[in-house]
Amino acid sequence: MLKNPPEVIVVGAGAAGLAAAYELSRRGRSVLVLESADRVGGRILTTKTASGHPVELGAEFVHGEPPALCRIIRDHHLQTEPVRGEFLCFEEGRLQDCHGFFEDADRVLQELPKNGPDMSFEDFLRSQGSEFSADARKRACSFVEGFNAADPARISVRSLVQASEFEERHGGDVQMRIASGYSVVPDTLMQLLPASLAEVKVGRTVTEIRWSPGEVRLSCDSNDGQESCSARCCIITVPIGVLQRSASGKGRLRIEPFPDATASALRQVAMGNVVRFTLEFDKIFWPKDMSFLFAQAEAIPTWWSRTGLPLITGWCAGPRCAPLLGLSSDQLADRALPILAKMLGETEASLRQTFHNIYFHDWHNDPCTLGAYSYVVAGGVSAPFELARPVANTLFFAGEATDANGRSGTVDGAIASGQQAAQMILEVSK
Predict the structure, then answer these.
(1) Which residue in 90, 110, 59, 127 sits closest to 411, CA to CA?
(2) Where does the chain hold its CATH 3.50.50.60 domain(s)?
(3) Which terminus of the chain is less hemmed in, N or C, by CB atoms within 10 Å?
(4) What is the side-by-side order of every strand in the sheet holding 61-63?
(5) CA dist 410 to 43, 243, 280, 367, Å?
(6) What is the Cα gyration radius of the chain?
């Protein structure tokens, strides 16, 4: 517990907030972190099966060797495991090799313009006339929608180029998992916080931030009633969906006054939706060497497994997941089992006999997130930079959506943004 009022208050104990708190406290600054959920980690959320196997409900993969995240993995000896196995596609009524699925998508994505005016991905495809086949267009759209949780009619081409360039610099073709579960990353950051300089309070829903240059006052709700606190400055790390609701005046978080430049930048980013769940069975009935399965024509188009475990994850992202939003876990299982049965040559009845459990978190309706992760809309490629710009050296914003280096939507981007916000505070408070 802090003995004196904090110098900095951080709103949100996800990867960005905890990274910021660590950077500040290790440099001697006192920090109070307020988190509305009853846990830390934000959109990192690992649960366990009855036999102890980790199941990710949020972030799962480490794409390549992103520096901010990999530094934590390396320095604290976190074990990773590579993603291995075959990629299969369900096409023409059967499972088969993907026959150029990724080659088609890559062929389109490699032609994205690196210069000139920005446009949406859909507008880019229209501008190419008959340059690409109908299959290549469809596969590229499916990839952009699924990987970025984005609407191809809205997402910025320039932002896609930025993300691609970042991955090329940091080995994005390699994919890993955190062996014991992704939650070990925020847990590690928590363990690093010095108790004398950093305090994390969960179950504190910040309802109001009133500020003037050099001073912030916060009000929050907790199980014990209302609380208030103050500091010289504040880092706000809530997801973009929550921040956009706040800017509209309709959210549970009120910022007075709401910075005009921040509100403008928020109009140039969007919160994507994802419906993901993991089904647990008593046995494995898919090909044992399968890692990913793609089924563009199905309501749940992407699936993946973990070698040797009777667990399979279904994923649907972007606009096409709209019919699944708001469904309960049981309803999702009812949608998923017939699709799996058709793809894998089983009967639905046989799958139900061996179906054991479903693991699911509704990020869309979670008031702490209001969606999955962000993407930049056409014309808004500078929005992450603008979001990260300090407001009167008093309000600082961090989180994956504020990373201007092509890492939006990633844990690495969230960590780096928190570190950057902390560094800016350290610079102005020397």
Answers:
(1) 59
(2) 8-44+183-270+376-428
(3) C
(4) 61-63, 175-178, 80-82
(5) 10, 18, 26, 20
(6) 22
Return the number of other C-beta atoms located less than 10 Å from residue 44's C-beta: 25
Q: What is the pTM of this model?
A: 0.96
- 8-44+183-270+376-428 belongs to CATH 1.25.40.10: no
What b/e readout covers 56-66, taking b as 16+ CB neighbours within 10 angstroms? Answer: bbbbbebbbbb
Report which of 57, 93, 270, 54 is spatially closest to residue 179, judged by C-alpha positions. 54
Q: What are phi and psi of 122, to 5 degrees?
A: -65, -40
Pairing state between β 205-212 and 215-222: antiparallel
CATH class of 46-83+175-181+272-360: alpha beta
d(CA 184, CA 187): 5
Tokens of 325: 């939003």
Task: Please give the chain's pLDDT, 430 residues, in tens.
Answer: 676 789 999 999 999 999 999 999 999 999 999 999 999 999 999 999 999 999 999 999 999 999 999 999 999 999 999 999 999 999 989 999 987 788 888 899 999 998 889 999 999 999 998 889 988 999 999 999 999 999 999 999 999 999 999 988 887 678 999 999 999 999 999 999 999 999 999 999 999 999 999 999 999 999 889 999 999 999 999 999 999 999 999 999 999 999 999 999 999 999 999 999 999 999 999 998 999 999 999 999 999 999 899 999 999 999 999 999 999 999 999 999 999 999 999 999 999 999 999 999 999 999 999 999 999 999 999 999 999 999 999 999 999 999 999 899 999 999 999 999 999 999 998 7
Q: Which residues lie across from 275 on neighbouring strands?
A: 316
Which amino acid, residue 251?
G
Tell me how far apart the alpha carbons of residues 10 and 417 are, in angstroms, rounded to a whole number.
13
Is residue 125 classed as helix, strand or coil in its secondary structure?
helix
Q: Let me know: does 186 contact 20? Beta carbons within 8 Å.
A: no
